[in-house]
Structure formats: C-alpha cells, structure tokens
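Quick one: co-fold with zinc ion.
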Amino acid sequence: MPELPEVETIVNNLQVIKNHKIIKVKVLRESSIAYPDSNQFSQGLKAKYIAQIKRRGKFILIYLEDEAILVVHLRMSGRLIYDTIKNETKFLRVSLQLDNKAYLDFIDPRALGKQWYFTSQAQMLENLNTIAQMGYEPLEYFDKKVVVKKIQASARSIKAILLDQSIVCGIGNIYADEILHFAKINPIAKGVDLSQRQITQMLEITKQVLSKAIKHGGTSFRDYTNSFGVNGNYQNFAYVYGRKNEKCRICNTLIIKIALAGRGTHFCPKCQKL
Ligand SMILES: [Zn+2]
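Sure, here it is.
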C-alpha cells in the first residue's frame, strides 16, 4: 500500500495538472466513488480548474478553483497516472480528461481505492473521519512531548501505534518496520514500556526514513508506480521489510517475520531485543 513517501512522490508529480481545467469525467466503476454518488461526483468536477494538489497522511487532496476538493486514497493497489494517451487497461476506474488533452487516470486492480468529491473543507471534515482525526504530519513540526505521552499511555504494541493514523500519520507496514529497526525497538514492545528517550529518537528516525524514501521515489514491491508510471527504488535500501530469512545488514542475524497488529512484521531479533 502506498504510504507517505509514495503519496508525497505522486503529489509532487501531479503539480503538472495545476491550473488545468477538467474537461471530461468518466466513472468506470461506481464503487470507486465513496462520496457523493458518481453523478454528483462527475458534475462537481466537470469544467473546473485545478488549483492545488496536496497530501494529508496517505490521502491526495486535489483542490479546485471553487474550494471543492477531490480526495483520493490509493489503498492497496491504486495508482493515479498522468498520461497524454488514453489508458485502455480494464483496471481503469475513474478517468479525468484535462484541457491539455492529457488524462488523470485512477487505475486500481484490486478496486479498494476510493475517491470523494466535497464542496468544501468543512464538508470533507464532516464526512471523512479519518482526515478529521488525522494525527501529526511526521515531516512537519510538532510537539514531540505530546506524542511521547500518547504512546506511553498505550498498552498496544509499538507497531500497532505507528500504524494508527490518529497519532502520527502516513506510516504503513513497510516504513513502520524500517523505522523500528533503526530505532532498535522490538515491534512487539508496548507503548507503555518505552522510555521518553526511545520514543523521541524513534520520531527523529521516522523523519530520516521517510525523507530517504521520498528521495528514492518511494518503494515498489507490487503495484506502486508514481504518476508517470515510474517505480520507486527504496526497496533496494530496505533493512528489514521484505527481507525474511535474509541477513541483518547490521549484525548478520536472520531477519524474522511475524504476524502483529494484523500485518506481516519484519525485524532483527538481535538488534531489536524485547
Ligand atoms: Zn541485526
């Protein structure tokens, strides 16, 4: 699933659609539209200029000239592709044609991704709880003490806490594993058992890991590409994620994979002792 670095990469790519007008809207799969219905969705977007493209957590926010917002979440396999030729894939779910004859295509093989159309920021916050309750952006300034307190108050595993978008947002399975490895924290460790120093350090490492991943265009294990169809290459630099039974790059111990917080979780049992 695309996480913060992948979504950030896409948002950077999508600056090419800024100030372009949406000429045509085609919804090829009704269930890809989460709000309102596909008719209202199409009517709302048609003939509008795109003003800004931003990211909030793992959501892509495309602001229109009249303050309406097109919200996109890619979930497991969604891609938002900018192309000058028409996409013929059967996985095309939503297609926007722009005034420069280019297309912004939502391609989603597993069809779990969603799009929303809201007339205003207020309407978005009212209808999309995940965004309304979204936690801190890890790459922006925030008061670390507040996060330390929240984490230390939790009896959940630190892996589950990192995946919880309401504390710090944008982190998914890949980067949670990588962050915990560099922070030398066992993913099973409970929030309540971590020291202030461990958590503060982990938050610093979060910034470093995410920034490095953005520099490499994100991670492409399965479906992810950026908006120009190009793969990321952070997977070549991963220390634990996707490296089950491979040697730890630091101590040569074999990386193990366990199920935790409902997700496959990779770590080095020696570097990340409980
Ligand atoms: Zn190790």
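If it helps, The chain has two domains: 4-132, 144-267.
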